[in-house]
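User: Please predict the structure of the protein below. I'd like the answer in structure-token form so I can feed it into my own downstream comparison script.

Assistant: Understood. Taking the following sequence of 133 residues as input:
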Amino acid sequence: MKKIGCLNSELSYVLAKLGHFDTLTIGDCGLPVPKGVQRIDLAVTYEVPAFTDVFKVVDAEAKFQKVTIASEAKEQNPEFYGFITKWAADNGIEVVEVPHDEFKKRSASSVAVVRTGECKPYCNVILESNVSF
């Protein structure tokens, strides 16, 4: 049994399989999951687990080079927007902002969509993996 890091077997497996340029979406509980994309549903109830709790575990387990967010987040959820843009700046990660409808289309190419219990608007990211060397 694992004793540290991501304990969810589905999520741990997906993270271990990520290759360079693969994408993983982490979303709030309202983000639609496109047909054919693996759903990893971590939501227990509203706000549990929070987006940031899941994000921090994923960030600790994999390396990323780009993050895509909905442009609406800047106005509709400035706390989330600030969290993600600061994280990206601190880690040298490119930030791409697209309209939410475009975000949902792009999530269809992710290897999986991780559903959190988050209820704040536009708490969604598409993370593009990088190499760890």
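That's the full token string. The first strand starts at residue 23 and ends at 27.
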